Amino acid sequence: xxIGIAFDLKADYVSAADGAPPIVGGHAGGPGxxxxxxxxEFDSIATVEGIERALARGGYKTRRLGGGRRFLExxxxxxxxxxxxxxxxxxxxxxxAHVPSVLEMLQIPYTHSDPLTxxxxxxxxxxxxxxxxHGLATPRxxxxxxxxxxxxxxxxxxxxxxxxxxxxxxxxxxxxxxxxVRDAAELAERVERLLADYRxxxxxxxxxxxxxxxxxxxxxxxSLRVLGVMEIVSKAVPQAEFVYSLEVKRNDDWxxxxxxxxxxxxxxxxxxxxxxxxxxxxxxxGCRDLARIDIRLDGAGSPRFLxxxxxxxxxxxxxxxxxxxxxxxxxxxxxxxDVVRAARERWRL
Length: 349
Known about the structure:
There is one protein chain. With 349 residues, the chain is α+β, with helices and mostly antiparallel strands. The chain has 3 domains: 2-110, no CATH class; 130-134 and 209-347, ATP-grasp fold, B domain (D-amino Acid Aminotransferase, Chain A, domain 1, 2-Layer Sandwich); 140-206, ATP-grasp fold, A domain (Dna Ligase, domain 1). It is 35% helix and 21% strand. It has 12 helices and 14 strands. Strands 12-11-10-13-14 form a 5-stranded antiparallel β-sheet, with helices on both faces. A 4-stranded antiparallel β-sheet has the order 6-9-7-8, with helices on one face. Strands 4-1-5 form a 3-stranded parallel β-sheet, with helices on both faces. A hairpin with a 5-residue loop joins strand 13 and strand 14 (303-309). The longest helix is centred in the last third of the chain and has 17 residues, at 268-284. It starts with a strand and ends with a helix.
C-alpha cells in the first residue's frame, strides 16, 4: 500500500513571503505589518521525515504530496491508496478542510477528521457551542468583531480575569503571556492588538485558573482510546496566572518554565473526569482517528473544555502529543501506525 503525505511546510510559506510587509515581534509594526507567528501552524521537514520513517517501518511505501497546488497536481496525476493528512491549509477559516474536501471529491481515503469537523474545530466559537450543546462544560465567552464592541463583555457579565485569542487560529497563534487580562483597560488593549494583527474576530472567555491538561485520543467508535493525559505545570509563575503561551512553547529552555506530567500527579478520579470530558468532546465534534483536547480546571476545580486540535502537531520529540506519548511509554512509530490502522478500519481498506 502506498500512503501519500499531505503537509504544509513553514519553510515554503516563509520563502514565498519574500517581499511581503515586515514581520515584527508579536504585533503589527505599522500598516500592513504581519505578526511573527503568521506561519506557526505549518510543519517542519522533521515532522514529515518522522512520519515517513514510521510508515516505512510499518511496511508502507510513502510519497510526499505537499500542500496547496502541489498537492492537487500530485493526487490528480497519481492517486495514493491512502493519504496521511497533516496539511493545515492557508488563508481562510476553512483552510484545514481544503485537503480532505479534495480527497472526498476524488474518493481517495485519508486519515484524520473530515472537512466539517476540521472547519468546526478551527472556529473556536462554533466548537464551544457544539461542545456545550452536548452538555459538556466550557468557559463562558463572547466574540468581539470590532474594537468598539469590547463593552459587550460587560453586558454579558463575564468575570475577570479573561482570556483573549484569535477566533480561528491554531498552534497558539495570538496566545501570549498578555492574553490573560485583569480588567477592562487590558482587555481593550489586547483585543485591539489582536484585531489589527490577525484581521479576524477575537474570542474572549473567562480564564480558568486551575491546572491545565492536554489529552491525546486515537481510534473511532468503540475503539476510541485515550493515549494519555498530560498535565502542563508552571514553574516560572503561579499556576493561577499561568498561560501556556507561544513564548513558552518557543523557548529553547522551556524546561525552566514548565514541567509535563504523564500521568498527572492528581487524584485518579480527577484525571478520569478530564479524560471523560476529552472523550465527550472528541465525539461531540465528530473527530476521527486522532485528536488532542485541551482542558483546564476552573477556580472551583471543575474541568472545562478549551480547544480541540484534530490535526495535532506530530514533530518527534517536540510536539505536545509526541511528548505525551513518549512519557506514556508509547513509541512514536506506534502512534503513527495506530492512526493509519484506525483510518484503514474506518475506510475498510
